[in-house]
Structures
1.
Amino acid sequence: MREFLRVSFIQNDWSVYVSSVPSSSRASDLNNGLEWREALTRWISDWGELVVDAMTTLGDMAIFASKIFMWLFTARPCKGTILPNFYHVGVLSLPVVALTGTFIGMVLAVQSYAQFKDLGLESRLGAVINMSLVRELGPVLAATMLAGRVGSAMAAVLGTMRVTEQIDAMTSMGANPIHYLVVPRFLACLLLIPALTVMADFMGIVGGYFYSVVMLGIDHYQYLNNSRKFVGGWDFFMGIFKSFFFGGIIAIVSCYRGFHCQAGAEGVGRAATAAFVFSFVLILGVDLMLNILLDAIYSAIWPNGAKLL
Amino acid sequence: MSFLEPALSSSSISAANRPPLVELRDMTLTFAKQTILNHIQLSIPRGQTVAMIGESGCGKTMLLKSIVGLMQPTGGQVLFEARDIHGLNDIEMTDLRKKFGFVFQNAALFDSMTIGQNVAFPLIQHSLASGRDIHRIVCDRLAEVGLPENVIPKRPSQLSGGMRKRVGLARALVLEPELMLYDEPTTGLDPIMSDVINELMLRTRLKAGVTSLIVTHDMRTARKVADRVVMLYPFARLKKGENQIIFDGPPEELDTCKDKRVKQFVNGEAGERLMELRQAAYSGFDETPMLADTYAQKSHER
């Protein structure tokens, strides 16, 4: 469908013809007007192609996602595919998520300390650090690490399988590649990213506490008391809730990119890069939407919710 | 051994009064307005071994992939046992695929699995055997293609090209298929290994009486293994209204065929295709003065 759309678009467009007219630089003094028009047409057609491409990709991806859900609910996952994927996505991502989480917690402390000290509010640092960690940075950080570590690897693996006909071989032996390859990866991302988010949250909280209390000398009791007062169950829930969406996005985008990989080493490389870039952009976009939505719900339930001041 | 039983029964019944195993009716495949296959009519009776020859890019592999449903033809029908395979739903298709064995050009072994897991994959997928049975069947199949038991724990990357191809063959044979499809089984192998593969294809056929379709460039394979040779010609270079299958007959007739294109292919002569090279050389000619100009200009600047 996608190929068809793109091609029909090119063929309806006469700029292809025009560009095959021999070397425009030699004939430039003859028909300046035509050249200008030609450039304009090409520019418009390029944009048109981009839009059509984007639409077809989005549509394709939606169909792909619907197939994943269809297999997810109609058939049991294939034997022996679940555990290895869970291990790769969950266990092996744990150290790197923990490490980056710790650093982010400390960075937050470093960044906000000076500002809050000037206002005389350094005792409230715990609230700020932990609130932003639990609500925003923990889930987004875990998702970023997962997209980089697992997403691009999934795209590369599936892309190589596509290029070397392994996916075709699987189909020809009566196994559905979406059921066999994509569903376990989707499940692993969807179910384990909350755990990774909790890990990032926890290590961030520890890192922030360490830097604030041990390095900057903020009062231990004040720090913890303020944190406890401001950060509640809702904030924690919000982060975890969002992370499910991030996990789903990573799996769908990366597997889609792998499945629709172009031939050759370059194609696989491009699939891996595109998987990361596209899923990251989508993660941040969806993050914004979910934040707006969840905040609306929050203020509807608790009109006088916790405020920092 | 159950492997032998269908062989005896299918070879004893005359193929004439049964419908063909595979039939392509008016099959057309177009890609982005470029026609690859045009109104192909082909029927393969049970038990026959057909070699499909033709130059690269004429659509042989696409035809093979349409038969197993990896490609959707844009027109016409593909019938297997008189059923249109592209009208089947997912479950029926999965069931049907148990009857196919596909040997891919580069074996297409799953490199995340061991050789044993690769060969056992179809068995486990369709849960047709369990535990010890699987091991026994895998060993049997590997022995049939001349591979020792100690390759089972190895990875595909640890094997040579010929061995990998034989594993691919073993994997395709593991479900005792009715139709074997080979995509260039001898390409990229040394002459001895090519002959081993030919011998294996022959043996498979004698033993199990399977129907085979072999896509190949190797005339030795076509002569040695096939009962019937079909030659496809690229659609773009056909004369108008001409059939894309330009030869269909037993391999012995290849030498007496009057068609120049068939002769050239069989004997491996470039013929008028050399003209294309010459034309390409001439079409580059008008660029040459420009290059010369810039060169002259540069030397002038010095």
Note: DSSP finds eleven helices and no strands in chain A.
2.
Amino acid sequence: MIQADEEALLPAYVRRIPAGGYRSLNPLTKLTLAAVSAIVAFGVRGWTGPAVVLVVVVSSALVAGVLRRMAPFALATLPLVASILLVNTFLYPNAHDVIAVFGPLSPTWTGATAALQATLRVVAFGLSAALFALTTPIDDLLGELERRRVGRRGSFVVGSALGAIPRTVERAREVVDAQRSRGMDTEGRLWRRFRGLVPLIGPVLFGALAEVEERTMALEARAFTAPGRRTILRSLPDSGWQRAARWLLLVGSIAAVVVSLAGAVKLP
Amino acid sequence: MSAETAASVGAAASGKAAARAGLVLTGVGYRYAGASAAALVSIDLRLEPGRVVGLVGANESGKSTLCLVVAGLAPGVIGGRLDGSVRVDGVETATMRPHELAQRCGLLFQNAATQLSNTTSTVFEEIAFGPCNLGLPAAEVVGRVWWALRTAGIEPLAPRDPARLSGGQAQLVALASVLALRPGYLVLDEPTSELDPAGTRLVADALTRIARETGAGILVVEHKTDVLAQIADEVVVLERGAVVLSGPAAVTLADPRLVALGVEAPAAVRLERAVRASGIEWSAALAEAIE
Amino acid sequence: MGLLTRWVRRQFTTRVIVLMPVAIAINIVLGYTVQNVLKLPIYVDSIGTILVGCVAGPLPGAITGILSNLIWQYAPGIGGSSIGPFAVTAGVIGFMAGIWGYLGVFRSRPASGLRLIVPAAIAVAIIVVLAARMYTIPQYNDPNAGNYPSWVYGAIVVIGAAASIAVALFVYLRRDAAGAWVAVAGALTGVVAAIVSAPIAAVVYGGVTGSGTDFVVAALRQGGADVYNASLGQGLLSDPIDKTITSFVVFLILAGVSSRFLARFPLGDRLVHVDAEPARSPEPTGTPSDS
């Protein structure tokens, strides 16, 4: 564990202590909030669960100043929301309280209610994921997890995966462009698109696998498999109340789900 | 604070050079797992502290395999069968675990991107990756990082994002990362092959400086014999897994048999041959002017 | 406990640790491209998961699947959509792939003549049985569970027939009996995936996922199926196909990668023949060959 005077050894660009009301929370706290949001948004039946999550998430986003940047995440839920609204409103099974008659595809109040509720849950969850993604740099989180014994290999897998994604996207983009210039359809008929898929997968996959051997040796050459605990240079502030809050939130959310599922307390 | 730590770390490193016995290969043969033919045959090689040895040869002559054997990754990490003995400062590499090997002999490949861990946001932390893996105290880690940055000549790069560096810079960061483990020997497999002339110069200068300041013994595989002419003390030529030529750099690189062995001589040597062949006098002054 | 610890540790070698992030990235990038750019009604987001499962073991496979879903859901830039809660399914798929790996399902079995026909026939029989089983499950038949329109039965027949023909062709054209086992493994994985996903889709998302498969859900609902059964019905139509295609892709990748590379993985000895011949195909670049 790095001491205060050792902290001073690190240049500022390494220490990278986040500022701001929400951001300065320990990454584990932000992670707990994301997990709890997911649990409550999906686990607590009715409107209350997702509504509470939405309120908490949006106000936290305001405090952290990321509200505007959540817009693309909200938009990303649109196809799912559209699907939910359409399929559930018009095709809800065993619903007979029809809103208007359109023959076999009549919208029903039950269906519409279910649809809106599901939409609220999806949006609440999506925004909670967005809040986490926008306020928590991954190396902050991984460092804190490792300090609490997650282990260097887990930390490496997640960190390296995140780094590998843009690299693979680049490679895929190059292949798609090359194929498109050779006439692959990305918009056309289904069969054409299927055909275009095959030459895409091969180069992307083999290119990615080719690196595995050299990366393995490079890791061993950097003493990755040395025994004992790895030194964590950066330490982020944590506090007693945050630790307590994390436990409370976790236990509280599970309790809320259990209570709701058991039907003990009827919430809207 | 950092300057003092860096200096003391550097002094400790070069102080070790005097006491070390060298990296010695005796009668080394190697066969990859599942391969029918041996990749290396009866190699004797000696890498002294503070000396730079160049390794050349045609493609498929076993240079990369030899690098893996010298660094102990073969058979340690990739399997296969090793005959003969590889000793680093008197200790058999076969008895050492990969992380112990990493602290004795560092290994660098030609593709810088695959050697970066891709898990760090600054060059500083990237170079700290190795020492942190060893579980060293934070103060020592930081000292080693500054020392490695300085030795590789890349201090200004410390705050940069490792994913956004040029080829030459990335290769130097990879070099510094390996240096941070304070190995007594360095093995580099075509470090400049993917670099432009500016990057090549950076790496070549860094290698000379490392050999001089840290007393590390360096083995460099290079197709660019010009680089070897500049930095190598000795050159070894491989063909089909065996050593066919070796000697002081200037002598070996001028050897006429190199061409037949698939190695292009340095530009200065080729120029001298061309000049002599066309009947013009070749004088020492001309050689001076070219250098 | 010692045995369990050793079993766990054996599956997580450094090579596997390096492969997993690559596989996760493949899952996410290919899945995103297929679902959002090409907009095909299959997922193709498990190639990496199944690959890791069958070369490393059930635990790495499961973790690859779980992490792929979580990272996809929570990563900045590509986040959103609905993939997160299906991490459970992805974990199951990876675990099953590990089991197939232990059973050597993905090992090439070159054969000809009669020895080719028998596995192909068995595979076709299993596929037919699976399809027939689906044909008769209550979800598709019981009027209380929702009487499905007749096109569903037609779809099952067509898919079953097409799958059988495709598998038989594959086995025949590549002269490789393993194709049969791969098909069976893929179909079984798909069925299990559908069964695990249905409650997640139904409870968490009200039965739809925003992907191309939702129109199937809608059609099934129109026939009168309830939320859970519509999800299960859709899953049983698309998941076995998707996972079988994915398994074949993985099989083809394994066939195209050098056996030397595969042999170094934990389950490598079940993927390549014991007395491995030299690589059938060029080394992936970056693997040091005898150069």
Note: Strands of chain B lie at 23-31, 40-47, 52-57, 81-88, 91-92, 105-108, 185-189, 217-221, 234-239, 242-248.
3.
Amino acid sequence: MADISINFAGIKSPNPYWLASAPPTNTGYQVQRAFEAGWGGAVWKTLCEPVLNVTSRFGAHHFNGQRVAGFNNIELVSDRPIEENLKEIYETKKRFPDRAIIASLMVEPQRDKFHEIVKRVQDVGVDGFELNLGCPHGMSERGMGSAVGQHPDLVEKSTLYAKEVAEVPVITKLTPNITDITATAKAAERGGADAVSMINTINSLMGVDLDTWNTTPNVNGMGAHGGYSGPAVKPIALNMIGECARQPEFNIPISGIGGISTWQDTVEFMLMGSGNVQVCTAAMHHGFSIIDDLTEGLSNYLDDKGVASVSELVGKSVEKYTDWSELDLNHRMVARINNDICINCNKCHIACEDTAHQCIDMLVDGNGKEYLEVREDDCVGCNLCAIVCPVEGAIDMIDLEPTEPPMSWNQRESALQVLNSK
Amino acid sequence: MGNLLHNLLTDEDLEKNFAESRPSYNAQGAFDEANRCLYCYDAPCIKACPTGIDIPGFIKKIASGNLEGSAKAIMEENPIGASCGRVCPTEVLCEGACVLNDSTSPIMIGDLQRYATDWSIRNEQVMFKAGKRNGKRIAIIGGGPAGLSAARELGRMGYEVTIFEAKNEAGGLDTHGIVPFRLPKDISLWEVEQVENLGVEIRTNTEVGKDVSATDLVSSYDAIILTAGMSKVPMLNIGGEDLKGVYDAIDLVEEVKNEKYPTEFVGKRVAIIGAGNTAVDGATTSVRLGADNVKILYRRTEAEMSAYDFEYEFAKQDNVEFRWLITPKRIIGDSDGYVKQLECVRMELKETEFDGRLQPVEIEGSEFMMDLDIIIKAIGQTRHHQLIDEFGLEHHNGVVKVDNETYLTSHPKVYAAGDVIFEKGIGEAMAVTAAQEGKETAYAIHQQLNESNESEAQV
């Protein structure tokens, strides 16, 4: 059995799954239930001066019958007194000493405020801090959350203030609501962060009700932007993590967050550079028991791959992520249809015909049986047919034997420059 | 079935027994099923539908919540689409062609069609408008699937259409001849109403050849379409057929369709002669009327029976017994003139010179008696010979001959479609086929009348 325990920036937990700072980690009752179910750690819902919340608070994007492809919330940080939270953190840690409890903090970017809260919280015994510099709604209007997280200098300062007094690791949580997340990630590192976590939620409006024309969610008929999470944000999170992980001058661990719902997502996030993962929306959709398959599936995967420890996955795909200008222009790939698996829905044909490169023919064989065939000379290997195909294995994307040596755009440009300068 | 062990069925029992048996989708069920549809391109289900309904299109509209558009897409191609959603042998048509048969399980197209059209019925949708009157008059004889479909299309194209309907209500077999627990009568009557909404006049209780003559129709209409379907179940031509307790399956179904439930079936032993879909209807109706034991007797075997697989399955679930290779010889009555026994003989299948098909041949000396109370005849239907002769149409054993493309008969003004042109062994006598033929006849008439207009204009 593979070892799925981790040591993330000095914080140990029996598996890489932490509940993200969010509604599921609002109380000791909830976090203890999660630990009973098997979660490796929990980032407590952000401690702050207690806020007032509104109703309603959540919205979801359902797609073609699939519930919660995306999720949106306008709930703020903890609305319970810090003292109460600290008492429950203490009790929970006492009951589950092997699990990681990370306190999420949010204060204005001032030294004394950071010092005060860090000292106060670490007195009850937490395994680490996560600085919430990413909350995109409500708190940002008060000069906190993403209002801080969007300014590299404020990220650096906030991290520095926390680090000045923290005796346990400090993770700086980053907002995706920024053009280049590597800028704030590097700022966190400059501020002395032991790690970063990303991504917080993305600015979003979930929808508009077709009958009332109110926004979803809305509070007494009025709406405001919320934070987007769930499966739909996974690709955005994965890119941001990959972009940070591949920066040569960025060298601290990343806690991956953003739409993780399955053990497969976890493997992808870790390969792309995450030292562990945090989960929220999937738990909100299905409850804490999803941890069972998350850990077992991961463990089985590692065994199948002959990987002894989950930590060995971390960053293994980072070197495969680069700039477009480094991609091989001479590589050729084509689609091939397996007619014994194909069910003849013709979705590949029409997708290619209407919207790609018109290279999948609908043909009839000698026995009058319909079949589909790719004209490989015209195929640009775009993947569209394989993407729309509803049957696993019916379309393979095949690498063709290279006819020319690899050449990237950058190599081509420099070769041209050499030629032109002659 | 409610209350079979008792001697009497209450009104509630009967209402329950004859209510539509297959549950309809609720909104969530329809939405989930609709979302399973792949939305194939050049979809095989469309090609497998005799009326060519844009099936992926109407299903997509269920998924999007556009039920109005969904029902319209169905009814556009099939004027009896609400009935067909219930009675089509979908497993050999659209659902049989669904590509998901090759991966998981086919989309329940019939049930989704029913869901969409039911919505339309509940919401009293008016989907189609009559075309601007073009001054041409068309007479349609018989308001069943073929006649209604032709009338609907002609009405939309501006023709003044009159349907002559022998019965008191139009709809043909859908209204009168398919058991209510498979197709409630009001569904078919809604389809009739849709056609009437286009200004089509339906003269019910009007029999051509009796109440109005063929000659009159020929002289007063620009074209006539014969869509009279088929007639009664033929005689068995065995002794005792006039005994009390001998029924015609078609008549029996018509009675229960009109909520007139015979009381004499309760606790009785019933045999149905024949093994087509009407025989199954007779059998399942008997069960629902409280019969104690119901058997289907067929002179061939399971392999040759003409009932659809789902009908066969339906009957078996109703505990109907199937007895193969048996032919009735004689019905024996009691002193009061009621059926008491049926003398049968066992058959075997033998190759004969007649055609390639195995023929049932009596096994000599294998006669036996079966104690019975009721016998239902369901051995096919006779043809409207008299009506055909009124117009002097060429026919083959009562099957009217038509041009394959135009549906024109041997009479230059008379067209025919539906069961009147259905020849055994060629295609299927399905409501959906009749509907398509009705549509095609309408287009053929439109073309012909326009062509003759043009040639007149040239003169």
Note: Chain B has 17 helices and 16 strands.
4.
Amino acid sequence: MSRTLSEQDLIETYRRTVKPLYAYVSRRVGGDAALAEDLVQDAWMRAIGDWRVNGIPDEPIAWLVRVARNTLISHFRRLRPQLLEPAQLDLMSLQGSAAAEDPGMASVINWGMARLRRVHAELLEDFYFAGKSVRDIARDRSLSERAVEGRLRRAREKLKKKIEKVTAMGGTDHVRRTRTS
Amino acid sequence: MSGAHEPREEFVNQLELQLRADLRRRNLATGPRLWTLQSTRAAALTIAAIALGSMALGGGVVATAYEVRLSEQRNVLLETMEQQAVIAKQRLALAIQQLQEAERRVSVGIAPGDSVSDAQFRVRETDAEVKLIDLGVEEIRASSREPMQALSAPLVSGRDFVTERLRVQMSVPVAAIDLGRSRIQAARTRINLGVADPNDLDRSGTSLVDLEARVAEAESAVGTFQRKLEIRQTFLKNGVTAVVADLRGLQAEAEGRRLALGRQIDAARGHVQALKAKVNVGTVDPLKLAESELRLQQLQLDLTKADYDVALVLRQLAK
């Protein structure tokens, strides 16, 4: 049954959530503004369609982030990094949110993450894009720091394997993306 | 932008306007649901009441209400399209900036020459998007209704929006052909230099045949647009009826899809063969081969569906 979605409620929610949503998406795509705007716009268009039927959810930002995240995963599943700089393999030693500032790096990590199990992808997302420390992640998940380090190491190894598969051995100095569809 | 991960003010404002307009348009499209009555009897009574009411009020009032409704619909449609146009133009400006940045990087030797081709394609793609939205705005202004896509759509004040739209849409696969050809040339250079494998250009399984298949797909899309343009012209000269024009348009699309799938299947077959050879010498995981075989089967299924679509349209045309 349709519920009424008033323009006022919609706009108030929009103004409250657009910046955190954009910040989340922008970090996930390494600051690629055009892609971030596309994803935010897409999430909001889906929100209008859904909220007109189901009403505004209790936690609209969580809803929007979930939709944007799923769209982003679908987007990176369709993309295929064509050429990868061998130095990209050193990304495993990156500290925290470096990927959130580099669209090329973010593209490679997102490409790999879209192919990992959710549990590994979420851990890497917290580390690479949310800029959380091992301590923060351990606290959020009620785990010991050592356990988080172990899980993070395994997730990085899996990511590295995915990325190695598409790494050109000839050596290039850039990352390019192309649509596969 | 005030911070690295903060949205541009213009984007936030434009998206807000677009959301307002979109919500109004959806609400208007749904309209009040008073007519969804619970019983036939109630419906009959309501229709009778409306008829009596209309007679009592006179046709003039009804016509005025209709005009108001039409005008309201036109304004809402325009508002939505104009917001889309603003955002699309911002995207175009961004794409142009990215192209300039790519050209700068190439000129100082820190990026390969073909990165400019990617950026040029993005500019042409977004430029087409802007032009399509602008055409939509002009058609709404002239007709007070949503733009019509059908090949049998009437002229609007003597202007053929359908043809104009098809030409703009066709410019995207034309640009894709240019991009694909430049990629193929770059790949051939790398193969000739011995730094790339024709069957595995980037270690992700992309082969030269894949690149050629993509160009062939874009060529097939251009062919489909050209056929639709011809059908449109024939319709406007009263050479075919509206129904036949639309069916022939569907036929052109289905045949184009079939052609593109045929080329994808050829590329996928080549890929499977190359992987089989590598599996035999133990340099590739057999799972990778299984994935490729599955993809080939999926494409073959899609081709069967495309064949069915063509047959269906031909049967309708025969009727």
Note: The helical segments of chain A are 7-28, 33-54, 60-78, 103-113, 118-129, 134-141, 145-165.
